[in-house]
Amino acid sequence: xxxxxxxxxxxxxxxxxxxxxxxxxxxEDGPVSTARLAAGYGLPAAYLNKQLQPLVKAGILxxxxxxxxxxxxxRPLGEVTLMDVLAAIEGPAEAFQCAEIRxxxxxxxxxxxxxxxxxxxxAAMRGAELEWRRALAARTLASIQSxxxxxxxxxxTQVRExxxxxxx
Amino acid sequence: xxxxxxxxxxxxxxxxxxxxxxxxxxxEDGPVSTARLAAGYGLPAAYLNKQLQPLVKAGILxxxxxxxxxxxxxRPLGEVTLMDVLAAIEGPAEAFQCAEIRxxxxxxxxxxxxxxxxxxxxAAMRGAELEWRRALAARTLASIQSxxxxxxxxxxTQVRExxxxxxx
DNA sequence: GCGCGGCTACTCGGATATAAACTGTCCGAGTAGCACTGG
DNA sequence: CCAGTGCTACTCGGACAGTTTATATCCGAGTAGCCGCGC
Lengths: 168, 168
Hints:
2 copies of one chain form a homodimer. By secondary structure, chain A is mainly alpha-helical. Chain A has a single domain (11-164), classed as Arc Repressor Mutant, subunit A. In chain A, 50% of the residues lie in helices and 5% in strands. Chain A contains 7 helices and 2 strands. The first copy, chain A, has helices at 11-25, 34-41, 45-57, 82-90, 120-137, 141-151, 155-164; strands at residues 61-64, 70-73. In chain A, strands 1-2 form a two-stranded antiparallel sheet. In chain A, a hairpin with a 5-residue loop joins strand 1 and strand 2. The interface between A and B is large, with 66 and 68 residues. The structure holds a DNA duplex. Chains A, B: InterPro entries: TR_Rrf2-type_CS, Tscrpt_reg_Rrf2, WH-like_DNA-bd_sf, WH_DNA-bd_sf. Chains A, B: One of its GO terms (cellular component) is cytosol. Chains A, B: GO terms for molecular function: DNA-binding transcription factor activity.
């Protein structure tokens, strides 16, 4: 087994996005607890809870404690982008971090003016990453939900029925 | 200190890109050993060697052993893109890996036809990532080198002089 | 003088430790509902 | 019957381990140059 899977985005991003969609579908029924969310996707409940916490801090979800508590959307899905979800979990830092190694050796003797302009490699990487972030920011969870419902009509009621049915 | 720096791209990518540029500048002087490359950027030599190995396997560099051995560019910088370098080191896998968690719980009872279409979240993430990869593939190392030389004219000769000068 | 053989120094390449991050689990503080009690 | 109060069950939130990945280092196989020797 030699599966290469590096530069991986935390799976928490996928979990969080799915949960946001589900929270919208279940929105009228009040908060949904971590246990129920996890059951709906076959995920470890405690870890899912840990992954959703940053979304609360980011203002995407609200959490209520107590007997009938759980998570709820803090704002409509149309105002939440994939970029918001990813930034909440993975952090705002960029994927490529230039260490300015050019200043360590060969270029150490160059005048400081040579470093006014950013490293050309860094600039190119940042530019490409910006494209990525722009595409993510242009995509709201509402549009994704719309796509999902288009692929499988009646998804909303189906989900609500599944959750209404008593779990074994 | 709580600096968030996740979803990080391996620093080997930056090292490799810089080394490719330098190998082009030094191209006429024969192979450049890991030790000299590392000295030029203040990097750990053994680890840099480890990072450059995938570039050899990817056909970007060629390595020659022996007394005056080292690394050399396998093809001109105009035929090497940032995407090539990143794919060589980080692997060809995509950053976002959809685990299809939708099939685990709520949607388990849906007919198989509902899963013919890919997960809407996965589709959106892949689309954004594709933009990123496209931008990286459009950028050759030659164009980056051109930018660097534009910012600091005479860089080529300066680098060659630094390497010609005996190290202390 | 010239060719050849052995030697040496240096190279890459992979196997081996160490540190960091991600993944997963557990328990406690706190709260909202609810039942009970007294008026 | 109704309001107040204490209790209980359930929630999130953060503190605590296990496992994979990234980082760093070291040593061996192998090669190219070079020196010395013999012809």
